[in-house]
Specification:
CATH architecture: 4-Layer Sandwich
CATH superfamily: Metallo-beta-lactamase domain
Strand order of the largest sheet: 3-4-5-6-7-8-9
Helix content: 25-40%
Shape: globular
Order of helices and strands: HEEEEEEHEHEHEEEEEHEHHH
Number of strands: 14
CATH topology: Metallo-beta-lactamase, Chain A
Distance between the termini: 54 Å
Number of helices: 8
CATH class: Alpha Beta
Length: 309
């Protein structure tokens, strides 16, 4: 019954500036995870009209002067729901929107925050990577959400980060760091030194099958570098965990190492890519949600990366 009510609620329409926009999610909630840090934990389900692309962990950080959004979500409807949560939490304006990478469950909500004075910040490689996939991403969003996708436009960054960059929210400095190729070739993390809180984007998955859209070897290296950092609290891009840092990285790292180990064995045995996809990593199937949707892609990416090493 709750699912039916929720579906009815998100199918309501509100006309804004002449454009039909999905109403905010009726059960959208944010949770405080550290002083000034608020997270909305997205669904682990595939994108459907019932969740309007509410799949990623997104949120915001409040300073004395303004607010930084960390990933605005997977559709305009999700972005608007996040904006409403910010207004309920603080009267400080949004001054920054940080997008951790170019996957659509993290960026389509940026359309809800476009306003004078708001900086849209991404990795330096984001614009190029996104422009290569912009049309397929828009087509897929329309396919999955239909009219509920309207208004979920691609917003280009106004500031890009090549190595590191700091933003001042007033009494709170956030350090943004651009990473080498790992989950993607445009991963960005956000760290608040005052609370030791690290927003990882999709450099960390919990529960949800990790996704390799960059380099599996690079992914492992980045996790090793991150594990050596002093972190008090951390927010993955998907899923929840109460494990202490850096223990929370271990399951994902083990999965990626298994991909490498078993793919190398398949290559040594002269197995073709189809044989490898059918066999590599299948022991992990019960450990992750969305395994059938993403694991075979991961094996394909790993095979392609390791084939000529």
């Amino acid at each position: 019954m709750l699912s039916r009510v929720r579906s009815i609620a998100i199918l309501m329409w509100a006309w804004v500036s002449g454009v039909a926009v999905a109403a905010p999610l009726d059960d959208f909630a944010v949770e405080p995870v550290a002083p000034g840090h608020y997270v909305h934990f997205g669904s682990l389900d595939e994108r459907t009209p019932a969740n309007v692309g509410d799949q990623a962990n997104i949120g915001f950080v409040v300073g004395e002067q303004c607010v930084a959004v960390i990933d605005p979500g997977g559709s305009l409807a999700v972005g608007k729901a996040l904006a409403a949560s910010i207004r309920r939490t603080t009267d400080k304006p949004v001054c920054f929107v940080v997008i951790t990478h170019f996957h659509p469950d993290h960026f389509f909500g940026a359309a809800a925050f476009v306003a004078p004075g708001v900086q849209i910040i991404t990795h330096d490689g984001y614009r190029r990577a996104l422009n290569q996939r912009a049309r397929p991403y828009l087509n897929a969003l329309q396919r999955d959400l239909g009219d509920l996708a309207r208004g979920s436009d691609i917003v280009q960054p106004t500031v890009t980060v090549k190595a590191s960059h700091t933003i001042d929210l007033g009494g709170r400095i956030l350090r943004l760091e651009a990473w080498p190729v790992a989950h993607t070739d445009n991963d960005l993390t956000v760290f608040d030194e005052s609370t030791g809180t690290l927003w990882l984007g999709d450099l960390l998955f919990h529960q949800h099958t990790p996704v390799v859209d960059g380099s599996v070897l690079g992914f492992i290296k980045v996790l090793d570098t991150l594990a050596a950092r002093p972190v008090s609290r951390y927010i993955p891009g998907h899923g929840r965990t109460t494990l202490p840092w850096p223990d929370g990285l271990a399951q994902e790292r083990a999965y990626l190492q298994l991909l490498v180990r078993e793919t190398r064995a398949a290559l040594k045995a002269r197995k073709g890519i189809e044989e490898a996809v059918d066999s590599v990593g299948q022991s992990e199937a019960s450990q992750w949600s969305n395994f059938e949707s993403f694991h075979r892609r991961n094996v394909t990416a790993t095979y392609t990366e390791l084939e000529w090493e």
